[in-house]
Amino acid sequence: MVSYILRRVLATLPVMAIVALFVFSLLYIAPGDPAAVIAGDQASPADVERIRQSLGLDRPFLVQFGSWLWLILHGDLGTSIFTNLPVTSLIAQRIEPTLSLMTITLVLTIFIAVPLGVVAAWKAGSWVDRAIMAFAVSAFSLPVFVVGYILAYVFALELEWFPVQGYTPLAEGFWPWLENLILPAVALGCVYIALIARITRASMLEVLQQDYIRTARAKGLGQRNILFIHALKNAAVPIITVIGIGVALLIGGAVVTESVFAIPGLGRLTVDAILRRDYPVIQGIVLLFSFLYVLVNLVVDLTYTLVDPRIRY
Amino acid sequence: MTVLTTHTAPVPPGLAIAPQLPELLLPVKIRRGIVGFLRNHPTVAIGGALLLCLVLVGIFAPYLGTVDPTAIAPARRTRAPSAEFWFGTDLLGRDIYSRVLYGARVSLTVGLSVALLASLAGLAIGLVSGFLRRADTILMRFMDGLMSIPPILLAIALMALTRGSVGNVILAITIAEIPRVSRLVRGVVLSLREQPYVDAAVASGTRAPMIILRHILPNTLAPMLVQATYVCASAMIVESILSFIGAGTPPTIPSWGNIMAEGRALWQIKPYIVFFPAAFLSATVLAVNLVGDGLRDAFDPRMAKSL
Amino acid sequence: MDRRTVLKGLAGAGSLAATGGLSMPALSQGAAARTLRFVPQANLANFDPIWGTQYVVRNAAALVWDTLYGFDANLQPQRQMVEAEEVSDDGLVWTFRLRPGLKFHDGEPVRAKDVVASLTRWSARDPMGLMLKAIQNELTAVDDRTFKWALKKPYPKMLLALGKNSTPCAFIMPERIAQTDPFKQINEYVGSGPMKFVKAEWVPGAKSVFEKFADYAPRQEKASWLAGGKQMLVDRIEWVVIPDPATAAAALQNGEVDWWENPIADLAPVLRKNRNINVDIADPLGNVGSFRMNHLHQPFNDVRARRAVLTALSQEDYMRALVGDDTSLWKPLPGFFTPDTPLYNEEGGEILKGKRDFAAAKKLLAESGYTDQPVSCIVAQDQPITKAQGDVTADLLKRMGMNVDFVATDWGTVGSRRAQKSPAGQGGWEMFHTWHAGADCINPAVYIAIRGSGDKAWFGWPNSPAVEKEVTAWFEAKSLDEEKAAARRLNKAALEDVIYAPTGFFLSYTAWRKNVSGIAKGPLPFFWGVSKTA
């Protein structure tokens, strides 16, 4: 088991190397360098060139890539061109809101979607089933920002149950932290809920037809017991897989949600950095994302062993 | 000696003939063909019909009472829906009804192209990776890497490299969706590889490409078709998100995404600018999802676990 | 008490019990009244006003650093940090004496050597500063409170250069910070202005925090723009970046922010309807929309093609696309100078007035030799002003019969592509859009975009000896009347040669909650004199 984990962690390195090279090349080719944005409207081309030189942007591709790799290997992600702050501290500042948002969304969706899917499978074919599936599909059909606007309007502006925007760190209190994140989490979670509910239902349907369920029922076990303990555990593997895949979706959707609800997270940082061509920040964040994504996959694979003792590494 | 005669032999007189058995099992009307398929699976029928309507709307947009969707008239911007402008006008005075109908073309094109291209590429990669063990590790690591690059970054970079265009949007979203499809195909291939008939084919000396083509490929088509519909739906939503951040199709080419993006600041006071394209977009995504669900249930309900 | 406060109270009590007293409201009622929450026009990602010349950087810098002189509401430079100045009879030596009691945020007094270092850094980046540097003999500190600038030629616009509010402004920093290379960023934000920058709470791109500087010694006169006494009536200012206008409007309505710098014009009616919000024009100097053509290559290297555009261009279309149906927000601009300023005139502007004549435009275009080659128009989609102008232009040129190649991209790309002098097929461009703050279009000194110096001119590289002649005349003018005459001739020449196509003059709103008072109109948001009741 330990050797499996080690092997997987080692396997992340080539992935991240590929990602790093790809992103670096992309940024190198893309026109519009930060020097022009920095120099501003009144600058002369000579000024822009001086700024480029001071940023080291006029060196050849391999030199730039090499020096960046060298920094990474020392744990230094470089310095942001625009804010002059280390990329690591920028990321550290912004990671808490994004992680909080994603965690709350995950928790919310799992606790809503899995029971929904279980119920739909239990009452397969009835109107309850159709209603749940219809809801799931329709929740998937609207873009995140439309859902976000509607939620903000109804619950924040009209009913005044939650604030419209912003983020309060956890250190300032649990409820202030939570109330800023509920609306964004619901908006972001809609798509996720649909996916997970569907997979849960399908997986449960298959499991519910198995013999051991019939035995359990014959033994006289209660419905809830059967559903949530026996059936769900056996159905869990595909559900967990989808949760893992969905994390990538979440990262993408977080960008929009953070813009709509003005949450100072990594998503917004990425878009701002891309539009300004703040190369070190972009490279640092994409590297981080790829690492996170691989980590999530690893956790998912490890969770399989918890749920299904037959799976061993 | 028992004579086995057919019923053509004359019946001997006096032989009692058993009475006819009552019809216990009514004959099943076997519905054949596409029509039969559709009647058996109403979800596919409904979704397909809706989708077909929207495609026709897109194709016949010029004949459905529309005007030039790019004609600006700033003097009559943000007017509410009226007899002259059925869906109202947008921030530059363009007719929203026309833009939404023409926008169907772009959004559907993006969705269908991404679905097609991602499926083809994912199929190729998944087949190779599933069948050839050596290629598997490398390819899957590469796919992992690809999945962790946010499609937004790709789209903006492509836009900056050349310009904002439908082609760039399609390319960016396709690259982001390929890993998912290839994983699915790989999974199917991995499970099919263990089947006895594949062993038999290998044993009888069939070359790998032939095995892939003849035995494996037909079995991947069903799950891939279903996955393609989900990719299509997701691509249309991602296109609207890209327009939201300004990396989508240029404004001279209306798409539901960029109509919504342009009108989003005003949605509290002039909700119709966002509402109509959103309604069309969700109807289309709904239709595509219904088709996907129906097809999946039709082919093999167990497929649902892996999609 | 509104519902949210009640719910918050209940939840707070609940979680208080649950977590054993961990949660605490961040600010008490009294403290809340001393904090002003402001939504700026853009991201404040970096904070060096000499290195980065975006308007938002200057606006924030005006809180933290002080200037030697400052424009007042009449666009006249008034003394700020300077107590007295003296210029020698031949106009070659300027001597300045600083006010007593000026302190930096780290406790050090402001000395002349700090000023010398700051001006050296500033003059390496600022156009007027570069002019001064070119004719400079020496810039030295005479003693702790006096410094001297000796020139080779007279420069009558010295006070204008030191007090202007167009970027980069001549902010005074401590010597050790001002000695940073002008093309590299500073990373210490210490100044002598009325507020301190709280770097520990800075989240670049999301939030910036400023705290009152207790030892600031304001002047005795009443504050007027950047001149006069800068009295701070709040203890703390938070700049909260809200990228989505709909969310910012909701936040203002909800009371989550107090002052929104730049609400979009379409949302003004909603804000006005709210009983708790005031909406007014932000800056009487407004903005000038600009459509720049490339004078180096076809088709716009021929003046007839450029004049064809002016003949067909409808400023009303552009302005309505930008600011909507509110006619109080825009004016037609048959010239280049800001309306309601001394040098404004309409000489030569007939081509932009009256009914638009597409037939004449097409004829002029044909005369210029245009034969349907594609004309590339680079339009930044992430800036609402350029995006709206781009859409109108695409339509305009199409109706003129031109073959438009619409390149939708982002501001970063526009920024670097517009610097390319090659033809469009090789990475260049034929036209792009931008806009200038009205304060930057009041006279030729600050107005880079109006110059016709060919290769040395701004992007588009217009070459107009007639315009340059009048610019020199303005610099050498001895009286306001002479200046106005020069400006009139300049306007005419600029329109004849079509340095660029002005798309109109437009204003923008600012909005604040009724419990905030003291908001003044001006080219940047002024925080002195602004107070807040609970």
Outline the structure in words.
The complex is a heterotrimer of chains A (313), B (307) and C (534). Chain A is 78% helix and 0% strand. Chain A is built from 12 helices and no strands. Chain A has helices spanning 2-29, 34-39, 45-55, 61-73, 87-122, 127-139, 144-158, 174-208, 211-219, 223-261, 266-276, 279-307. The longest helix of chain A has 39 residues, at 223-261. The model of chain A has no long low-confidence stretch (mean pLDDT 81). Chain B is 64% helix and 0% strand. The radius of gyration of chain B is 27 Å and the shape is flat. Chain C is an alpha+beta fold and 534 residues long. Chain C starts with a helix and ends with a strand. At the A-C interface, helix 2, helix 3, helix 5, helix 7 and helix 8 of A face helix 1, helix 8 and helix 14 of C.
Short characterization:
With 307 residues, chain B is an all-alpha fold. Chain B has ten helices and no strands. Residues 1-6 of chain B have low confidence and may be disordered.
How much helix, percentage-wise, in residues of chain B? 55-70%
* Number of DSSP strand runs of chain C: 23
- Which stretches of chain C are poorly predicted, pLDDT < 50 over at least 5 residues? 5-27
Largest interface: A-C, 59 and 68 residues
Q: Note poorly predicted spans of chain B.
A: 1-6
Cα gyration radius of chain C (Å): 25 Å
Strand content of chain B: under 5%
Secondary-structure map with pairings?
The complex is a heterotrimer of chains A (313), B (307) and C (534).
Chain A (H helix, E strand, L loop, with lengths): L1 H28 L4 H6 L5 H11 L5 H13 L13 H36 L4 H13 L4 H15 L15 H35 L2 H9 L3 H39 L4 H11 L2 H29 L6
Chain B lengths: L32 H8 L1 H18 L36 H36 L1 H15 L3 H11 L4 H28 L2 H8 L4 H38 L10 H8 L8 H28 L8
Chain C lengths: L2 H17 L9 H5 L1 E5 L15 H10 L1 E2 L1 E3 L5 E3 L2 E6 L5 E6 L13 H12 L3 H8 L1 E8 L2 E6 L6 H6 L7 E2 L2 H4 L16 E3 L9 E6 L23 E5 L4 H10 L4 E2 L7 H6 L3 E5 L5 E7 L9 H10 L2 H9 L6 E2 L26 H10 L6 E7 L3 H16 L3 E7 L1 H7 L13 E7 L27 H12 L3 H18 L3 E6 L2 E5 L2 E2 L13 E2 L2
Parallel strand pairs in C: 1-12, 1-13, 17-18, 17-19
Antiparallel strand pairs in C: 2-9, 3-4, 5-6, 6-8, 7-8, 10-11, 11-12, 13-21, 14-21, 15-19, 15-20, 16-20, 22-23
